[in-house]
Amino acid sequence: MKVYLSSVFVALVLFSSSSFAVLSCDRLDSSIRIIDRYADEVFIDNRIEDTSILDVELNGLVSEIEYIARQERDSKLRAWANQLSNYWVGLNWRQFRTTSDKIADRLDYFYVRDCR
User: Fold this and answer.
1) From CA 106, how far away is CA 15, in angstroms rounded?
2) What is the pLDDT of residues 15-42, one digit of tens each?
3) pTM metric for this prediction
């Protein structure tokens, strides 16, 4: 019985540390679509309107990117999430757009790796 429980525990730890076990393809796809929407908005309008839906939802997006970065153990993605937030606060839209493009590319990489 003790050996069986240890085996189950080891299996749970292995599966819970896998990014694919934690991140669904739908969740990755959704995150990619959202970050692309932000990049498009900044590209077209060169800013995000205060109190717009995008402005209000940006904290959630940054949190989602940080979550994915933790699951993937990706320090670059985590840094980009932090930069995205800083560029938003500092109204540095050119850097915001560049960083959001980097994030979208990285999320695309995870999606292709795990979902195709």
Assistant:
1) 22
2) 334 444 457 888 888 888 888 877 776 6
3) 0.69
